[in-house]
Design brief:
The structure is a single chain. By secondary structure, this protein is an alpha/beta fold. It has one domain: Rossmann fold (3-Layer(aba) Sandwich), CATH 3.40.50.1110. Helices cover 28% and strands 16% of the residues. Strands 1, 2, 4, 5, 6, 8, 9, 10 and 11 form a 9-stranded mixed beta sheet that branches. It has a two-stranded antiparallel ribbon with strand order 3-7. Strand 10, helix 9 and strand 11 form a beta-alpha-beta unit. The radius of gyration is 18 Å and the shape is globular. 51% of the residues are buried.
Length: 348
């Protein structure tokens, strides 16, 4: 069982881990010298990025990190291509609707993608560094020494505010609410995540590199915390979607086996004052899916009452609100995803 219940207690220690130790290939397989690791980042608003970056330097100080000025200018060893959309942004050609909920690194052609150094501000981005971030910066910070500038790690981020699993349509129907708050039959995996990832794999290949998808980082579930049928069907719908993803991208997986693509999930917050209905039931669904396969992982990102308050990842101030993580929690969440990647040799 892969239940990383105490990842948040790691502090600085795991960042000193040798990158060499993380990149020794197992099983005697010879890696292509041009191979690079690719990760898809998807989910809803806490992945899209709703944590303010104004307090990020203080968060670094609080955590004992002394390189904020260096890394905030851009992590070159982790390249990110971003295109996210929120309420009302179901058609990527209709960019005039709710543009404040969009984030993208390619201002000329958002859906085509463009890789740039990973910086804070990929939440409300819109072509220039924005004011909010998601966990991608913490993940990049954790992984920055595990790659090089000529062969970086690549993040492809496609997430959508307010998205949840519909209770009709395909078994893996993952839609976002429209401008009226309804869930139409538009599947974000098929219409956004899959084609956007394909576009970005082509960009990487155009650099003369061989992209290998090592994992999918997922943070979603708040919209499905109804304590009823949505929650009860979550593990099965997630399983169906991940199975489709592994099938669709098998050619880009290690040894062309989609089962080698890791799925790294994050729990929804279930600490005191949670905004969700029975989040513990949702997290039980996530745990069930994590337990169903060796290459599924779960990051425990909530705090039980028994946990020390300083180790709690939580929404609220400073930098968040009642449903979105504060700045330090968003940073530490990303670091926890990175720790899963390093601890389980997913870069091999």
């Amino acid at each position: 069982m892969k239940h990383f219940k105490h990842l948040m207690l790691c502090g600085v220690g795991f960042l000193a881990m040798s990158a060499t130790a993380c990149n020794n290939g197992g099983g005697g397989n010879q890696k292509d010298p041009n191979e690079v690791s690719v990760f898809l980042l998807s989910g809803q608003s806490n992945m899209q990025g709703n944590s303010g970056i104004s307090g990020l330097k203080q968060a670094f100080t609080d955590l004992g990190f002394e390189d904020y000025d260096e890394v905030s200018a851009g992590i070159k060893t982790v390249q990110s291509s971003v295109y996210c959309a929120g309420y009302g942004e179901l058609d990527h050609t209709k960019l005039e609707k709710n543009s404040k909920l969009q984030s993208y690194t390619n201002a000329e052609n958002q859906f085509a993608g463009k890789f740039i150094d990973t910086v804070p501000g990929f939440g409300n981005f819109n072509g220039t560094s924005g004011t909010n971030m998601g966990p991608e910066f913490g993940a990049a910070y954790a992984l920055k020494d595990a790659a090089t500038e000529d062969k970086p790690i690549f993040f492809v981020k496609m997430a959508s505010n307010g998205s949840g699993f519909a209770q009709s349509g395909t078994d893996y129907n993952w839609p976002v609410k429209d401008a009226e708050g309804n869930f139409p039959e538009i599947n974000l995996y098929d219409t956004f995540a899959k084609p956007f990832l394909m576009n970005n794999l082509a960009l990487i290949e155009g650099m003369g590199l061989k992209p290998v998808i090592k994992g999918w980082l997922w943070h979603q579930g708040e919209s499905d915390c109804d304590g009823g049928t949505k929650t009860a069907s979550y593990a099965q719908r997630l399983s169906d979607m991940v199975a489709k993803f592994r099938e669709d991208f098998a050619d880009y997986a290690r040894n062309e086996d989609g089962d080698n693509i890791a799925f790294i999930d994050g729990m929804v917050y279930q600490g005191s004052g949670t905004a969700w209905t029975k989040p513990e039931d949702m997290n039980a669904q996530k745990q069930a899916f994590a337990d169903s396969a060796d290459n599924n992982y779960l990051v425990d990102i909530y705090a039980n009452e028994e946990k020390i308050a300083d180790n709690e990842l939580k929404p609220g101030s400073p930098g968040g609100d009642s449903t979105h993580y504060n700045t330090k929690s968003s940073l530490r969440l990303g670091m926890a995803y990175g720790k899963v990647i390093l601890d389980n040799d997913l870069l091999d």
